Amino acid sequence: MPKQPAIQLKNITKAFGKKVIANKNVNLTAYRGEILSILGENGSGKTTLMNMISGIYFPDEGQIFIDGQEASIASPKDAFKYKIGMIHQHFKLVDVFSAAENIVLGIDNGKHNMKESTAEIKKISEQYGFDLDPEKKIYTMSVSEKQTVEIIKVLYRGADILILDEPTAVLTPQETEKLFNILRRMRDDGKCIIIITHKLHEVLSLSDKVSVLRKGEYVGTVNTAETSEAELTEMMVGKKIDLNIQRNDPHNTEERLTVNSITCVDRLGATVLDNVSFSAKSGEILGVAGIAGSGQRELLESIAGLQRLEYGDIFYFDPKTGKKESLRDKTPLQIRQMGVRLSFVPEDRLGMGLVGNMDIVDNMMLRSYTKGNSFFLKRKQPKDLAMKIIHDLEVVTPGANTPVRRLSGGNVQKILVGREIAASPTVLMVAYPVRGLDINSSYMIYNLLNEQKEKGVAIIFVGEDLDVLLELCDKIMVIGSGKITGIVDARTTTKEEIGLLMTKSKDDGKENSNG
Predict the structure, then answer these.
(1) Largest CB tally within 10 Å, which of 249, 344, 405, 503?
(2) pTM value?
(3) Which residue, among 362, 312, 369, has the nearest Cα to 336 in the 3D structure?
């Protein structure tokens, strides 16, 4: 018996203003009893398309059919009427409520009886293999548990078409595999599952079919069993891309940075770094892995002089003089001038070291104003630097004198990372340098980091994608709840080992910590 189409999109178009066309004439079909991955680079229109199915946006043109009948979905309430539920990247839960209270919140189902509701929640959990305590408060939950509440919330409302937006972005490998097993059970139960992701490994291991969007337009759908990472990448980008990250063995390594038992607290007095020790060597890439918010940002900021140390010390070994210097009492500017550079790519790229109203050349000059007034008159060097970054990283811009705020987020990011690399640092710290970049640009950044490694720079790389950390880095340091839980050889470790270290309890993080 052929599978039944759950959702059919016909010529769906959505624009924001006159210039931004998010989706253009998209035709897409998702079937019951299948998992469909929606794949595309950032800005390809994936989330916008799913938001139209879930009632957050309304299409400007085109039709949506549910089970063969044309549907008008003008709100999330309409979507639930058609048994559509979307689990967003950012959870919408009330922290002080229990799981069960969040799940039944806003439903007038005639029950009004928490005992009955809790029993039904337990039944759903057992049916699909969820591990959830209905009485547990949200504020005591891990990210994985909160996601479970969101999924059960839509199932409790009767959803049999589920859309998940980047569901594994903050999960460990073990939590990801557990989620995938649950999604497979739902598929086998006849539900239609749509998953938005950018992780090709996950697409190939989970989905039955893959639909690709490029610049808001539908490119095609392929059977997962009959495709490959290379083919999917070409469909996304429009050209062949070499997906191999070159990793040479480190040579002539020397101690460049030593972190000794540092502890930091935040403004509320909570410990964000707890007795952290490690070293970074020249000619090596040290990866930093951990669940989001485990202390990665504070770690880099403490080295850069932006975070005050309560205890401990950080020592820098100058390659020119061979001297060992403490960074503890240095200003951020002094630390930068020593050659210790930080390129942190937050969600708000313009809030971190770039000025939106300035052009690209002026943003290159920002880092050099302190060299004296004469530099104000010398625009040639920063202009050359701007042109080099535009050329090497393929920055899409009308010219070097274009205000940065007029560039797309990905192009702003290339400038942010490129500027720090171009400063010829001795220690380069990068956090999330490819966040939001397309695959082609991401591999350019990886190649640039490898070039710096070959020049003898000590690189500390905070990343979100474990597959990239395993391919790019020489060592991987895992941080959990502000403690180092292990430092492993990236060539011989596994995703599973890193996943276990990511969830290790605070008190047993001393073993395995040999750098």
Answers:
(1) 344
(2) 0.77
(3) 369
